[in-house]
Design a protein that fits this description.
The chain has four helices and nine strands. The termini are far apart. It has one domain (about 5-160). With about 190 residues, the chain is of the alpha+beta class.
Length: about 190
């Protein structure tokens, strides 16, 4: 994908933005911390799927799980990792069906947001880059609050998984130690 390695660079992502290229192609612009922008010649939906592969997650399951948690059927936050919670934000008016209006901002990279007009907001990232979107500041703040709720749940789930793995390790270690004492071959 346009020489962009999600596995190595996911922590640097500020947002994923749907764009129309000069020749009219529907692409995605990845904004990185520090202001670098990389154009990937695929729809945002495809870029999300490829990012999800890095974390071995199913996007439809994430939408369902976290949509129920925050009471949203559409446009639920996507928690790929506790440090990569993507909030859907309306970025553009698509020219045709299936071109996608939503981009995704990374929850923990948002510093603040300011109203521009009734239905437009300026999102300021921690590195002071600025993104305009087509949602009211109230709507963006609600998405950020939903991201916080999803983040807490995601961290709790990750902590539970780590505790289960540690417990499994302790049990296996105890079994191995017992077998070594009895000198039972395995």
């Amino acid at each position: 994908m346009a020489n962009f390695n999600f596995e190595l660079k996911w922590q640097d992502i500020n947002c994923l933005i749907p764009i129309y290229e000069q020749l009219g192609g529907n692409s995605t612009e990845v904004w990185l911390v520090g202001g670098e922008k990389i154009v990937i010649p695929y729809k945002t939906k495809t870029v999300l799927k490829n990012l999800a592969k890095v974390f071995a997650v199913d996007i439809s399951q994430l939408k369902r799980k976290y949509g129920v948690l925050v009471g949203k059927r559409v446009s639920a936050p996507l928690a790929f990792h506790p440090e990569l919670i993507l909030l859907p934000i309306k970025i553009r008016e698509p020219f045709a069906k299936d071109e996608g209006a939503n981009g995704y901002i990374v929850h923990n990279k948002v510093k603040s947001c300011n109203p521009l007009e009734k239905t437009k907001t300026q999102i300021i990232f921690c590195d002071d880059t600025v993104l305009g979107c087509m949602q009211s500041v109230t709507s963006v703040n609600l998405s950020i609050a939903h991201g916080e709720i999803v983040g807490r749940e995601c961290r709790k789930n990750l902590q539970t998984i780590v505790q289960e793995k540690e417990e499994l390790y302790r049990v296996i270690s105890a079994i191995v130690a017992t077998l070594e004492k009895r000198r039972v071959g395995y």
